[in-house]
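Quick board copy: two proteins, each given as sequence then tokens.
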Amino acid sequence: MGNSTSRAASHHRRDHRVDALRGVALLMMCVDHIPQDVLNRFTMRNIGFADAAEVFVLLAGYASWLAYGRAFGTRPVATVLMRIGRRCWQLYAYQIMLVVVCVSTIRIWRHFWPVPVDFLEPELAHGLDSVWRVLSLVALPGNLNILPLYIVLLVGFAPLYALLRGAGTSVVLGLSGTVWLVVNVNPRLNFPNWLDPDGWYFDPLAWQFLFVLGVCAARVAGRHDGSLPRSRLLAAGCGLYLVFSAVQSFPWMDWGFDDLRPVAMGVPDKMILSPWRLLDVLALFYLVQSSARATELAATRGGQLMALFGRHSLEIFTMGTIVDLYGRLVLTSFGTGVVMQVAVNVVGFGVLLAVARVRERQRNAARGATRGGQGNLAPSTPLCGN
């Protein structure tokens, strides 16, 4: 009786490794989008082929299974579909809000200080006649392109679930991987983007594979108490690949060192999610999600702080994008000295922390009200969300 209760509690306990890793990725995305910020010298894109965007999408697939995949087995299909629809609408609303805020900010800012044209595509920054293109997601401005990808992936989650149930994991991974491979062979296969002749910066036909891998990883972890099965040989292989990736990707010359890269190669293509990038993020994720030590670290004070950001990923990403914009504008207009660097990073982190804490209080209050309405005998539910 005691063991079964313990297993049930473990099953319903949120895995803080996922939240903490997503929180770290969100902060890195924020820093990476401010080119003048000295902190972006220390993010994962400097020590690996992949960057925070790959982590974000992989964990989006993982969290989607926790939030919706398991619900299909316990709740009416219509109810789960409505939840997915509401989430897609929420993502769309945040995307449009970001476009409005960014365009408005740049149009106002340039009345007082010069703004380089690369801050936002001139077609959007200098006119509003293409609003319908933005609303229909035909025009995706730079740095505002990952939420549309998430919407497309989430829209396809229900068919993906049906295919997993009907055909099995191997067939789904085979089909998804084949589409990804075809896109890598022919990068012209992409969704149209009015602002970029090459298409969406994150090609959904390629990035769906990473999302699907995240979904399948969550299913496997669910059969092993929330962790991926640990293999010493596989873990060693992942570690060696990450070492190679770090040495190959490190900006040696930017730091004044000799170029120590073992292989002469260009930067792996991000638009089509090149194999180098895919293997990099999968190796990192496997080491984290199969590690008991990672579980311990996620439970520390620092890990819980990162998990706080990760639990409210949409709000943190949205506010982080706004922080990015103002950070770039401030550093461009007023210089990149030490004082401005400290001010931008301290204020930016403070804003994100405030947003995370407010959302956490709101969430806890909502959960408390729900439990109070159900009574003391109401069962606790797993905290699964995006």
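And the next:
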Amino acid sequence: MMVRTGKQYKEGIDQLDTAVWIEGDKVKGRISEHPAFQGVVQSQAELYDLQHIEKLKEVMTYTPQKNKERMGVSYLIPASKADLERRRKMVQVWARHSAGLMGRSPDYMNTVLAAFASSVHLLKNKPNCFPEHLEQFYEYARSHDLSFTHTFVNPQNNRSQLSLLEEDQTNARVIKRIDEGLVVRGAKLLATQGGITDEIIVFSAPGVQDKSHAFAFSIPSDTAGLKFACRPSFVKDASRFNAPLSSRFEEMDTVVIFDDVIVPWERVFFYDDVKVANDFYIKGNFVPFTLHQIVSRQVIKMEFILGLAQMIVDTINISEYQHVQSKVAEIVKGLESSKALLIASEINASLNAERVMIPDKTPLYVAVNQFQETYPRFTEIIQLLGASGMVTLMDEAQFQSNIGRELDHYLQGFEVKGRDRVEIFTLAFDLCMSSFGSRQSLYEKFFFGDPIRLSQIIYQSYPKDSYTAFVKEMLEKGKS
């Protein structure tokens, strides 16, 4: 298959018999036609089709040395700074198509798998580790352009350090090792896009202490005993006018239930090894690779927010006010800071011992942590700029009714008809104030972990000795 089309993606997930439960019922028929998934599946299909546009061919695809067929750059393991730049441009083409609103577009999980494959040396000659399985699966996924969801977070039941002593554990764990493979029972969250991907990658969260929870594997989404339990859908209206974002980019979040799921040995990357589980996350390439993808996407999302803020300003002609200029400037500063940090991570990248080009983690950590803090402020700025216009919104049917002409007149903006002004403000509402928008804010706030924990990582890992030495040097100079 190599680089798949949107049609092939849709047909692939429709052919799976995946157990997806939503609103008390198991999804029957084609999942691509279900109201809760139709919009995001279509948007995802459009992403795959971008790989086939001739002018984007060199950006979105590449030809590995061992293969004559073109494959997705989202699977590329970077060997140079030019490769990192190429990955960034690929991510941003896909992100621009969704305004950065799809946090689990295919490039994210493809990046995760590339990070795992480039960290395979950490599994070699270790007990209960199968580096050859990981390498073979990476090649299989890349050549078939598979789609993935993933899960590694445990349910929020008891997260104290003594929780592992409880007999009734809800966390997904290995309960048996049999001839066919591992038997997994329990639950995991949070699988975004659960049920609309070919596969699910499951691995241990850092800090795992129990060997039965220390594993990594990938299985098809329709594996027997695997269930995806969905939260209520945020698609309340299929209209692109009434719900311009949620109707297209509502990705869905799921709890993954493992009901004695058998994971074939050939799909197991490692198991029953706490040290490897922690080292694979901490010493592997997961963090720098995924951070680079995340910040690349977030830059595009900020560009979208900036454009929307300015459209609101222009639509109601408020650009002359100093406080308005100051608010929009906040978004500009956030955008330019993230762009600079992203480029800095590429400039300061270095080859590791395995000849993989690793982006500098520090500026990426700073960018992600900064975005966790600024994104809620950016959405607040949109609300403040829109003010009462954000709540006096008419739906499409109103403009098509007998009072439509009046509404078009009385709700007009600056050189803009009422329907056009409301369309812009409805977009802003969907981004900032709808259920979809609220989920976006929470999602970005915890995208790569708790903001406080990330701040701790930045503090603990940042080399500060040279700066304290600088101060000491100035103190000594002052004494002479």
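Board note added afterward: The longest strand covers residues 181-192.
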